[in-house]
Design a protein that fits this description.
Layout lengths: L2 E5 L5 H11 L4 E5 L3 H7 L11 H8 L4 E4 L2 H7 L2 E4 L19 H12 L5 E5 L7 H9 L6 E5 L9 H6 L4 E5 L3 H14 L8 E5 H32 L3 H9 L20 H14 L3 H28 L8 E5 L14 H11 L3 E5 L4 H8 L7 E3 L3 H5 L4 E4 L4 H4 L3 H7 L5 E4 L6 H7 L2 E4 L18
Helix pairs in contact: 1-3, 9-11, 9-12, 11-12, 12-13
This protein binds nicotinamide-adenine-dinucleotide (NAD) and uridine-5'-diphosphate-glucuronic acid.
C-alpha cells in the first residue's frame, strides 16, 4: 500500500486521481488544495467541475481509498508519492510577461514538500511545465539532505472526455533520471498505471523529452486547428467549402482526420498558454525563427475570432449597435463548464464594444462566465439559461460551442421569434445550413460561402 498525494484539486488533479483511486484500491489517494470551496465541492454531490462520467468514478472510490482535504502539510508528511498538479498560468509580470510560465505556485509547493518531509519521496510533475523545470525542482527539493526523485508525467486528457481519456489513454508518458534511484521511481509510477493501462502504452523517456513532449503535443494540436482555420478564410473568399476540404485532406492517412474542425478559434486554459511558453523557451535559447513559427499559431487564432465578429458586423449592414445578439455556448468546447480562454468571451467583448445587446446562454458554463471571465462587464450582458428565451427578439444567433443540443433545436420556432431579417452565424459548423436558409435565415458558417436572402450578396468577395 502506498500513500499517494496530489497537490491541486482542479480539472487535472480531481479527475486523474479519481481514476487512479478507482483502479488501485490497495493505495490510499488523497487530493489536497488550498481552495476550501473546491475541496468542499469535491466532498459533496455537486462536484466543482462538469465532466461526463466523473460523478460515477468519484462515487466509486470516495471514502474508500479516495479523500479530499485542505490539510496540505499533514498529507505531505504522510505521502510516499506526490503528484503536483497546481496551475501554471502565463506570467503577467516581470521577465517573460505574456509568454513564460508563472512557476510561483509550483515552486511554493516544492518548498512546502521539502519543509514537511522527513524521508525520501517521489515527486511527480503532473502540471505542464517548461522543459528543464525538473532540474530546478531537484535543486530545491534536494537542498536539505533528503533524497527526492523528480519524475515528469504530463497529463494529456482533454476536458469533456477526461474520464474516457484517463480510462483509455493513447499513451502514458513518464520521464525520469537514468540513475538507479530514478529508474526505481519510474518503475513505481509505471506499476500504478499498469493497473489499467496496457504496458505497451506506458512509455518512459528521459526527463527533458517528457517535459518537452507535453508542450509539443499541445502545439501540434493547436497548429492543426489554426491551419484549417487559415484555410477556412480562403474558402470563404473562393466558394470552396472547408468541411469538404478537411474531409478530402483528412482521408490521407499521413494527415488524418482529427483536429481538422474549422471553428471560431480554439480556446481552453492550455493551448495558448503552452504555445506561448514554447515560444518563450525558443526565444530564451536564441531560436527566433522557431519562436516566430509557433507564435503564428496563436496569432492566427486571435485573427479568427476577430474576423468572426467583423463578418457579423459587415453582414448585418455594418452596425450591430442596439441589436440583440444571442451567443449560444460560452464553454470553450462541448461537455465542459470551463470557460477559460473561450472564443465566446472575446466575441462577446467585441460585440459589446460595437454596442450590441448581448445575451449569453449555455447549459453548464453561465456561472463561470458571470463570476469570473466576464465579471467586469457582467452588468452589460444578459445571462439566459433558456435558449429559446435568449433567441426571442434577437437579430442574430451565433453558435459559439458545439453542444449537441444546439444542433437539435426547433429553429422554425426560433426563427419566428426573431427580428427579421434573421441572421445565424455558425462558429462551429454544426447546423444544417441549407435547411436554415430555406426557413428564411441568412446563414454564415465558417469557411463556406454565405447563404443569404439578399440577391446581390449571395457571394461576397470582400467584407
Ligand atoms: P486548475 O486551476 O483547475 O487547478 C489547479 C489547482 O491548484 C487550484 O484548485 C489551486 O487552488 C491549486 N493550488 C495552487 N497552488 C496550490 C498550493 N500551493 N497548494 C495546494 N493547491 C494549490 O488547473 P488545471 O486545469 O487542473 O491545470 C493544472 C495543470 O495541469 C496546469 O499546469 C495545466 O497546464 C495542466 N493541464 C491541464 C489540463 C486541463 O485539461 N485543464 C490538461 C492537461 C494538463
Ligand atoms: C487539450 C489537448 O487536447 C489535451 O490533450 C491536453 O491535455 C489539454 O489541452 C491540456 O493540456 O490542457 P482541451 O483544451 O481540454 O485539451 O480540449 P481540446 O479538445 O484539445 O480543444 C481545444 C480547443 O480547440 C477547443 O476550443 C476546441 O473547440 C478547439 N478545436 C478542437 C477546434 O476548434 N477544432 C478541432 O478540430 C479541435
Amino acid at each position: 500500500m502506498a500513500n499517494i498525494l496530489c497537490i491541486g484539486a482542479g480539472y487535472v488533479g480531481g479527475p486523474t486521481m479519481s481514476v487512479i483511486a478507482k483502479n488501485c484500491p490497495e493505495h490510499r489517494v488523497t487530493v489536497v488544495d488550498i481552495n476550501e470551496d473546491r475541496i468542499n465541492a469535491w466532498q459533496s454531490d455537486n462536484l466543482p467541475i462538469y465532466e461526463p462520467g466523473l460523478d460515477e468514478v468519484v462515487k466509486a472510490a470516495r471514502g474508500r481509498n479516495l479523500f479530499f482535504s485542505t490539510d496540505v502539510n499533514r498529507h505531505i508528511a504522510e505521502a510516499d508519492i506526490i503528484f503536483v498538479s497546481v496551475n501554471t498560468p502565463t506570467k503577467t509580470f516581470g521577465q517573460g510577461a505574456g509568454k513564460a510560465a508563472d512557476l510561483q505556485y509550483w515552486e511554493k509547493t516544492a518548498r512546502q514538500i521539502l519543509e514537511h518531509s522527513d524521508r525520501a519521496k517521489i515527486v511527480v510533475e503532473k502540471s505542464t511545465l517548461p522543459v528543464r523545470t525538473a532540474a530546478a525542482m531537484e535543486r530545491i527539493l534536494n537542498s536539505n539532505g533528503i533524497k527526492f526523485d523528480v519524475l515528469s508525467n504530463p497529463e494529456f486528457l482533454a476536458e469533456g472526455t477526461a474520464i474516457e481519456d484517463m480510462n483509455s489513454p493513447d499513451r502514458v508518458l513518464i520521464g525520469g533520471r537514468e540513475t538507479s534511484s530514478g529508474q526505481k521511481a519510474v518503475q513505481a509510477l509505471v506499476d500504478i498505471y499498469a493497473h489499467w493501462v496496457p504496458r505497451e502504452r506506458i512509455i518512459t523517456t528521459n526527463l527533458w523529452s517528457s517535459e518537452l513532449s507535453k508542450l509539443v503535443a499541445n502545439a501540434f494540436l493547436a497548429q492543426r486547428v489554426s491551419s484549417i482555420n487559415a484555410i477556412a478564410n480562403l474558402c470563404e473568399k473562393t466558394e470552396a467549402d472547408v468541411n469538404e476540404v478537411a474531409y478530402a485532406i483528412g482521408l490521407d492517412s499521413r494527415i488524418g482526420s482529427r483536429f481538422l474542425r474549422a471553428s471560431v478559434g480554439f480556446g481552453g486554459s492550455c493551448f495558448k498558454k503552452d504555445i506561448l511558453n514554447l515560444v518563450y523557451l525558443c526565444e530564451y535559447y536564441n531560436l527566433p525563427e522557431v519562436a516566430a513559427y509557433w507564435e503564428q499559431v496563436v496569432t492566427m487564432n486571435e485573427y479568427q475570432q476577430l474576423r468572426f465578429v467583423s463578418r457579423m458586423v459587415s453582414s448585418m449592414f455594418n452596425t450591430v449597435a442596439g441589436k440583440r445578439i444571442a451567443l449560444l455556448g460560452v464553454a470553450f468546447k462541448a461537455n465542459t463548464g470551463d470557460t477559460r480562454e473561450s472564443p465566446a468571451l472575446s466575441v462577446c467583448r467585441s460585440l459589446l464594444e460595437e454596442h450590441a445587446n448581448v445575451v449569453l446562454t449555455d447549459p453548464y458554463a453561465l456561472d463561470n462566465a458571470r463570476q469570473y471571465d466576464l465579471a467586469d462587464v457582467a452588468d452589460r450582458i444578459e445571462f439566459e439559461p433558456d435558449v429559446y428565451e435568449a433567441a426571442k427578439g434577437a437579430h442574430a444567433l451565433a453558435i459559439m460551442t458545439e453542444w449537441d443540443q444546439y444542433a437539435k433545436l426547433d429553429y422554425e420556432r426560433i426563427f419566428n421569434s426573431m427580428v427579421k431579417p434573421a441572421f445565424i452565424f455558425d462558429g462551429r459548423n454544426i447546423l444544417n445550413h441549407r435547411e436554415l436558409h430555406q426557413m428564411g435565415f441568412n446563414v454564415y458558417a465558417i469557411g463556406k460561402p454565405p447563404l443569404t436572402n439578399f440577391p446581390a450578396d449571395t457571394f461576397e468577395f470582400d467584407e
